[in-house]
């Protein structure tokens, strides 16, 4: 039987290395670790090879250079997974090269404009018979799977509340920091009343122990644009993210105020030194993080109903969560599951059961909370 060939762009990066680690547990794959630094890709392949269930190889590849489509054809790739963020401000040249090469495309983007904009390539993808999926990450792939499960049986969805708070000792990548800073103090889409400014204010959410009370602030994610369109009556959607250490959270609030007042143009330009400053406190706090989703509306009898779900990640395993969707999609594609061609945000193709299966072996628990 022919091996299913998966090329991971940015394979040795923050999320890429974790994704490859998960994919290596699947059998029947040939995983090509790709990036601009051949030695880094080779070192990761050599480190994972002894316990890998799949074949690993490495390739020096700059996806922003010319000739990507021809390179993909030469490698006989079945699917390309793009993990090299931040995706804010990127174009779709990688996805377009996949169309030209007849290769499926999946990315881990969580930038609203990038994820929503992938639909512009839908006609090209359908004509080529390939699948282009953007947002195979915690949002909107996992968040949508949760909302769909919680909304099942409801006659109306009125509001959706989503939040993510990683542990302070959990690793954080520079591209993630830059992406967050890009909308710090900037206006965000609002399905409620009044304007929403990224990171300007904080509100408290209480997670089960050992996470407990965390502060969250408004963040820019694809869900703000996509979820109101997915359900009738355009439910109000709120999304918040937070830092475990409250003084760092309040610092973000102050930074947002400065940007909102026009005193700072774009905080992402300072991502390097801001990350270094945050890393001074890496040994503070915990390595436990959480994600929650609450759906409020009316049940089948027209009575008020509220259902909540929570994910708890310990042992520093939180950064694996954004890789679970891509791993689940590879599993389906390699097994011959026929997913309809086209270009779209990664929504509705995976169930909560798919995510739970991919999280096996990690310190990640997901459950619906008692009402």
Describe, in plain words, how this protein is organized in 3D:
It holds the Pfam family Sacchrp_dh_NADP. InterPro entries: NAD(P)-bd_dom_sf, Sacchrp_dh_NADP-bd. This is Saccharopine dehydrogenase. It comes from Comamonas testosteroni (Pseudomonas testosteroni). The protein is an alpha/beta fold and 371 residues long. It folds into two domains: 4-138 and 320-362, Rossmann fold, CATH 3.40.50; 142-313, 2-Layer Sandwich (Dihydrodipicolinate Reductase, domain 2), CATH 3.30.360.10. It contains 13 helices and 16 strands. It has a seven-stranded parallel beta sheet, with helices on both faces. A seven-stranded mixed beta sheet has the order 10-11-12-7-13-14-16. The chain has a two-stranded antiparallel sheet with strand order 8-9. The chain is globular, with a radius of gyration of 20 Å. The mean pLDDT is 93.
Which terms would index this structure?
371 residues, alpha/beta, Rossmann fold, Dihydrodipicolinate Reductase, domain 2, 2 domains, seven-stranded parallel sheet, seven-stranded mixed sheet, 13 helices, 25% strand, globular
What is the CATH level 1 assignment of the largest domain? Alpha Beta
Tell me roughly what share of residues is in helical segments.
25-40%
Low-confidence stretches: none
CATH superfamily of the largest domain: NAD(P)-binding Rossmann-like Domain
* Spatial sequence of strands, sheet with the most strands: 3-2-1-4-5-6-15
Q: Roughly what is the average pLDDT, rounded to an integer?
A: 93
């Amino acid at each position: 039987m022919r091996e299913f060939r998966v090329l991971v762009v940015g394979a040795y990066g923050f999320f890429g290395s974790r994704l490859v680690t998960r994919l290596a547990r699947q059998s029947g794959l040939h995983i090509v670790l790709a990036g601009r630094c051949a030695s880094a890709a080779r070192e990761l392949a050599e480190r994972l090879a002894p316990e890998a269930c799949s074949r690993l190889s490495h390739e020096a590849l700059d996806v922003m250079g010319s000739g990507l489509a021809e390179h993909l054809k030469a490698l006989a790739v079945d699917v390309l997974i793009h993990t090299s963020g931040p995706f804010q401000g990127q174009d779709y040249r990688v996805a377009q090269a996949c169309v030209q090469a007849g290769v499926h495309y999946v990315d881990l983007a969580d930038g609203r404009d990038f994820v929503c904009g992938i639909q512009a390539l839908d006609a090209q993808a359908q004509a080529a018979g390939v699948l282009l999926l953007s947002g195979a990450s915690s949002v909107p792939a996992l968040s949508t799977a949760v909302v769909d499960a919680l909304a099942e049986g409801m006659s109306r969805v009125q509001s959706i509340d989503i939040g993510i708070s990683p542990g302070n000792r959990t690793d954080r990548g520079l591209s993630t920091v830059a992406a967050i800073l890009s909308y710090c103090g900037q206006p965000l889409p609002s399905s409620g009343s009044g304007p929403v400014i990224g990171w300007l204010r904080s509100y408290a959410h209480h997670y089960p122990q050992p996470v407990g009370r965390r502060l969250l602030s408004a963040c820019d994610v694809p869900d703000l644009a996509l979820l109101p369109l997915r359900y009738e009556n355009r439910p109000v959607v709120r999304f918040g993210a937070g830092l475990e250490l409250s003084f760092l959270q309040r610092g973000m609030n102050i930074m947002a105020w400065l940007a909102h007042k026009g005193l700072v143009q774009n905080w992402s330009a300072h991502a390097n030194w801001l990350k270094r400053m945050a890393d001074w406190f890496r040994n503070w706090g915990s390595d436990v993080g959480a994600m929650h989703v609450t759906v409020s509306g009316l049940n089948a009898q027209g009575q008020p109903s509220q259902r909540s779900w929570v994910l708890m990640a310990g042992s520093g395993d939180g950064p694996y969560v954004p890789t679970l969707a891509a791993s689940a999609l590879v599993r389906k594609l390699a097994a011959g599951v026929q997913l309809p061609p086209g270009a779209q945000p990664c929504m509705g193709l995976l169930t909560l059961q798919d995510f739970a299966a991919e999280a096996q072996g990690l310190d990640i628990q997901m459950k619906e909370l008692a009402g």
